[in-house]
Design goal:
Distance between the termini: 31 Å
Oligomer: single chain
Shape: elongated
Largest sheet: 2 strands, parallel
Order of helices and strands: HHHHHHEHHHHEHHHHHHHH
Helix content: over 70%
Structural class: mainly alpha
Number of domains: 2
Amino acid sequence: MNFSEKVRMLRKEHGFSQEELAEKLNVSRQAVSKWENGQGYPEMEMVLRISELFGVSLDYLFKADEREEKGSPTGSAYYVSKEMAREYLTTKEKRGRQMALGLAVLILSLSFTMYFPQPLGTALFFLGVALGVAILVMLNFQGTFQGYQEIEERPLNVDSAFLQRFQEEYPALQKKYGSFIVAGIVLFILSLVFSVTTHSLGGDEMRYYAMLPLFWGTATGLIVFGGTMSGACDRIMNERAPSTESEEGNRRSWIYGVGMPLATLAFLAIGFIWNAWHPGWLVFPVTSILCYAYTVWGGEGRHVIE
């Protein structure tokens, strides 16, 4: 893209009309129109003001970027300033923490039915499930900054100065977030070892089994958060393909709001009808894994894994 095309693209991405942009730059609408039609160029002082207004570098405005040619079939990549890149990573971190917390609370609530006497244990369990589901459902109602969806869905042209610094940090970040995933897997394995050895500990086995959801909840939270942030870093690096199924992915995230209440009904049916509370709680980790796998292979999560 040349200068005029970039000015037009930046104006539209920021939601400005030609009149609004002209007002912010203290020029006439005709001047803006001439710039966008390639009929003239602004003075250097005005170029600096345009650069500051849109948060882009002078290099970006005047130099072609090879990634623009390779990133999209239409040849137009979405420009991401350093401020937008930082805000994207911050937003993904907040959303990743919230999803990890919601899933962890859902799984941890299982401990109440095994540790506390009834009906207190059941009451605390329902409170935990309600809180976990509410945390996950709230993800769908949280607003995001302007440009978030474009970063998720379109090929990117990240500010060159920011990208250069980020490339230096990228290996350390991937190692950091990869360690979250490894730690989660290790905790799942340790939970299996703990489950096998509980019979030899003696005493009230249900109190020992109440420890298992602590392993599972923590492990699930670590894996979800680590995977989310690893995928966000890949997105900024353009190593993860943009999502072309954003709306479908959003619909798939509601699976948690449906799956976990159904798992709760199944757990209660198994407990009250067959008095099998101990094996019955297995429906929760199984449901959590299935829900996460559904979103992973059906939407954004797939790119995180890849």
